[in-house]
Amino acid sequence: MAQSLNTKVDYNGKAIAYLGFPQYGQIMIGDRAFEFFDDRDVEKNMQFPWNSIKVVEGDVTKSLKGEYQIGRQFYVVFANGQKVRFSSKESGKILRIIRQYIGNERVVKSKRFSSTITSIFKRRKKED
């Protein structure tokens, strides 16, 4: 049986982890770690202590009315630069709880595809 790192749980809900193929499971957020437990096999779990997480990037879009909306997907970025993508219906609530543990400055808006392309062209112009 898989042992949780947390002693107190603040959130427990359904989510999807994208590691090649989608894995359906449960996210558990507590006082010591961010954890994901697979629905099919609980032994296939992922446990990320708060000190190993560098940044959490949320998917934020702007509607035609000018309102900002939080999408279902978010990324957990680690100190070594690796990313793991998760998806949940309650991603806004999850990001607010994570912000309590890692700080407001480490929960950021993820880059859009268009901004990534424009940054590549800006770098090329500076090199010339």
From TrEMBL:
Top-level taxonomic group: Bacteria
InterPro entries: DUF956
Pfam short name (any one): DUF956
Protein name: DUF956 family protein
Organism (species): Lactococcus allomyrinae
